[in-house]
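Tutorial handout. Part one gives the primary structure; part two gives the three-dimensional structure as tokens.
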Amino acid sequence: MPITIQSRYYGLDVLVIDGEPSLVQRPLPPIVSYPDSILHQVVAGDTLDALAKAYYGREDLWWRIADANPRKDPFDWSVGDTLVIPPLRVATQAPLR
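Part two.
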């Protein structure tokens, strides 16, 4: 499958580890505050893809929410936790190389 410019893997180098191709890991992005970000309070059943669909209309942008909250593991969310939802203009821009 080709990697599109909107993919979080776009522009990453490929390494071969034990004969298998693997993408080089990118360091966690800095936490950037956008004045038009939304603060979402977690409710029971929230998932990254469902939040991306609700806020962006696109489930495939789930990783942009994950990147905006790098210190929160989605498996450790609790009802009432607050997540930053970056604005759509940020979520749809091409990742930095």
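Part three, for discussion. The mean pLDDT is 79. The CA atoms of residues 17 and 70 lie 26 Å apart.
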